[in-house]
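## Example record

The block below lists the input lines for one assembly entry, exactly as stored, with component labels intact.
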Amino acid sequence: MQRQVALIKQSLFDQGYLDEQFMELEELQDDVNPNFVEEVATLYFKDSARLINSIDQALERGSFDFNRLDNYMHQFKGSSSSIGASKVKTECTMFREYCRVGNAEGCLMTFQQVKKEHATLRKKLEHYFQLARQAGPKETARRSK
Amino acid sequence: MLNPGQGRGPDSGVAGGSSNSDPFPAGLRVLVVDDDPTCLMILERMLRTCLYRVTKCNRAEIALSLLRKNKNGFDIVISDVHMPDMDGFKLLEHVGLEMDLPVIMMSADDSKSVVLKGVTHGAVDYLIKPVRIEALKNIWQHVVRKKRNEWNVSEHSGSVEETGQREDGDNNSSSANNEGSWRSSRKRKEEEVDEQGGDDKEDASSLKKPRVVWSVELHQQFVAAVNQLGVDKAVPKKILEMMNVPGLTRENVASHLQKYRIYLRRLGGVSQHQGNMNHSFMTGQDPSFGPLSTLNGFDLQALAAAGQLPAQSLAQLQAAGLARPPSLSKPGMSVDQRSIFSFENPKIRHGQMMNSGGGGNKQMNLLHGVPMGMEPRQFAGGGQMRVQQQQQQLSGGRAVGQNVQSSGMMMPVGGGPSMLQQQQQVMLSSSVPRRSETSSGSRVLPAAATTQSVVFNNFSSELPRNSFPLASAPGISVSYQEEVNSSDAKGGAGFGNPSYDIFNSYPQQYNNNNDWDLQNMGMVFNSHQDTTASAAFSSSSSTQRTRAEHVQNHHQQQQFPSQSLNHMNGGGSVRVKSERVAETVTCPPATTLFQEQYNQEDLMSALLKQEGLPLVDNEFDFDGYSLDNIPV
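Predicted structure tokens for the full assembly:
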């Protein structure tokens, strides 16, 4: 079981969903904070959902206040990079680039990508954490210091 | 808390920390500010893993109020650049000026311009998100570095040299050596401080870093030199040569110049409305300004106007002014101080007050215009002048070398040599450069207060006339009190005003708000006197509260027009600060606190409430001393 969990995690890295920042987080996990990574991820998804909502609303309004959109996205990108959400981060960067040049169409399009990657990552991580919990503390609380 | 005494040096506890008994940097008190909850959580975890004591905060305003409430509660601040309620750089400025803590900026944005902005605003480091724990492991170095620099910036060349040596050798020498040199340097500085006042001997011993006391005169000399060389071209070496002050080192000047530059920048940028800059600059900087004692209120006024007078100084000034106007500061000095003050103020106040007075002179002229004008009006007696002077000093000190300088200014004023000393001592005792100084200041005040209480009373009478001075004085004393609390709550002994005591009890958070302090002072004063002071305060307080714009206008009007205005001006000066404060905005709650604590606040509170202005610390632009503490 633990091996399975390890494999899943490895694939997430290999496929570029996660980057080394995620590993940094895992290093912070220990016996005292055995579920730290999961807690952070949960917090991230909750907070980013809020951001996504805000951006959605802003885009729907159609006014395209690029500054505002960029601000939201800056924050979103910051969060995403903090947990190592690599693909999400990439899409965020693209979105900001479109904002910078004032390309509304590009923003809309990219934002769909952002949402898609976000949702995908969420599912994958949820699955991963679930398995990890089942596998036992050894796997999740691994702290390779 | 980083204890210089115990801080053996980098090798002692930092690196692996295991071998040395010195736990440092474990226990480093970090305040981390970020509106992103995910990042905040991660950072907290990382910092805890580094064995730091972490306080997290998701709003800049809250962070500032936390910092103000616990002047010595933190060693270092880490802040995000993009935050909804306040720009990270603004927070950076405030912290640097008011508390003189090292601040690390961080952001997902790694563009050169932003990083540069961090540097120019005085950040000690800039981290790119996502932050890795390795980057956080070494943040203690900024705390150590700052402390060392402060140590070195001592007007006693001997000490400086020693520290300098120590610095060089520190990293390489054993912890024992470091400790030894630290101690010896410190001791020396403390001794020096003792010489000055000798009141707070005990403070001196606990004092961690002696600071150069940038007295009003000294600062005036400094500013004169800078102006002569040209602000942009002024280099510490040349300034030092021009000043020709024995015992002053290039490092002292450099540090003072840096602060001064920041101060100017803020003035230029914010002048109009926010006294914040000034305020933070001044208040935060040096407790050293604290020795307001000499400022008999006169200075306070000036300072208040300038907004430069740090809370401490104001308090002291007030104390000084109040206690014994004549004795406090040498009349001659007052004048000087004033000018100093003028320098400072104009710059800061530039936008705010000076308009009426200095017109466009950014730099000194403004100050001159303001304080000078105010002074005569406000202070009938010399005592008042003193306060002003001190204030000026403070402002001066603040601008440039917050830490020590402020104290320096105050001390020389001569009004309260003991006070000064106390201040220094206090400052010394507090290892943390920023707050401690303030504390010192407060200490001094008590001493001064006693004698000054008399003065204070006198002052009050004058207050009605010159709203300004009064305002400042109270503020000063108030702020002083707060600081005093830490040192020795002599209580209103000196002042003989209940307010004094009140101040003591009042948390230091207001210290930063000089303006506020001033106001408070006024308020307190009012309680005693029930005079126009209160009125002045209200006006001042209101002014302060209002955001820069308000304050400025108000302030300006007040300052220059008639005496009655002065009274207001007192508030106005406070206002100037308030402008600053306005920015910080963290004050409002503080203000309330303040009021609650002090009985005298009633008056003030009422006034303030009317105004609806937060008793922001910034009120006093005086050198960033937040008179705010003055719980009027």
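Residues 433-465 of chain B form the longest helix (33 residues). The interface with chain A takes residues 35-39, 41-42, 45-46, 49, 80, 82, 107-109, 129-133 of chain B (CB under 8 Å).
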